[in-house]
Amino acid sequence: EAGVAQSPRYKIIEKRQSVAFWCNPISGHATLYWYQQILGQGPKLLIQFQNNGVVDDSQLPKDRFSAERLKGVDSTLKIQPAKLEDSAVYLCASSPARVTGELFFGEGSRLTVL
Amino acid sequence: AQKVTQAQTEISVVEKEDVTLDCVYETRDTTYYLFWYKQPPSGELVFLIRRNSFDEQNEISGRYSWNFQKSTSSFNFTITASQVVDSAVYFCALRGLHAGNQFYFGTGTSLTVIP
User: Fold this and answer.
1) Dihedral of alpha carbons A91, A29, B100, B50, sign
2) C-beta atoms of B105 and A48 within 8 A
3) What is the pLDDT of residue A104?
4) What is the model's pLDDT at position A43?
5) Which residues of A are less than 8 Å from B95 in CB distance?
């Protein structure tokens, strides 16, 4: 079974530029999450989708971050314009619809903002 | 409030020593789930174990064992006879049953096993 796929693995941009990250969850997983992990910290939830609907985006900085999950499969997370403090690893995770299961994570996209 | 505390930021042990990683949680849910994940230098979070709040049996898997104590809200993780490949950051996480079933992660414990 293929795991969660993310791209790009690494991205370096200058502040005020834009960037987009892509995630393809495990086939059949209804729930998709985007987490931000700053160096030395635990993952912080940015947004959670159930199929193509948003379940929780309360911690998403909506003035600069946006995310979509068209057709309820893959998802894109965009940052525009980027700030220095956005430097982090952006982790995508997916899980089946059942509420008790573990999350399956991708390898992450490491963003450096200069 | 839902919260996970991993008080140990960094631990170093010599290979073959045993090491215990502590995890303390807070939740208002009566039913919840606890998890441990391993994050090696490659970055991917690897699932290790899930435990539900009604199952306080300790679990052993090879060199890994987990001690869940509801009375102290702790879910500690022990690695026996540590190996260099165990070097990673370990995260404890809590999943409740409301508000979107969010995962709450601790801040992680960085384990270094010295050969």
Assistant:
1) negative
2) no
3) 93
4) 93
5) 99-100
